[in-house]
Amino acid sequence: MSMGTLRLVEASEQPEPRRLPPAKTDATKKDAQLLAELRALRRENANLADKLQDSENRLRGAQKKLRGLQKTRDEVAPNIDFADAEEWVRHHVHLGWLENYSAIDRAAHPLGEYLVGAAFAESVRSLAPQLQAKVWRVTVDVVTRRGRHLHSREAHPLRSGTGARAPEVVRAEDDARCFRYSVGFKAAGARRLHAWHLRDGRVELCRVVTHGDMSP
Hints:
The protein is of the alpha+beta class. The chain has five helices and five strands, in the order αααβααββββ. α2 packs across α5. It is elongated, with a radius of gyration of 37 Å. The termini are far apart.
């Protein structure tokens, strides 16, 4: 029986075994997951940056419009020759009462009788127009006695010390108590309006002061 011709196959001619791709380990899967989360966060961050820029643009536009309206209002405001500083104060208080209170509110909260302290007008005149407008709104709340009950005014007695148990500031000649009212609600360093509350129920406007000024 013929065996035919046999040929030895060298090792170098033998086909290499097929290599399978390495199985994904838990660490590899976790890396891929973190990478996907990172990409998602970057997209979210870019979207938030766009929204922030849009909000800032709209804010600048609103501020510009407000400045224009205030300028127009100042230009058309009547040039009144006031007899004295107290007349100037009473004019703005009455105007603020009409502008900020509805007819129903005015009936429920009349201005009533009040006094204007010697230093009050000057403490308001020294402020910027935008801040003066806020002061007049607070002043109306104080004069109508409504400010004592409004949370936004943060009304409380002025005290002679820093502690909560420190004595209240009381005027010697008439036993009037001095109260502090916030000009800007929950605003850091907001101005305060000081007013004397007299025993007969009247209010005397004292001064508009900085947050740290504790003098009547």
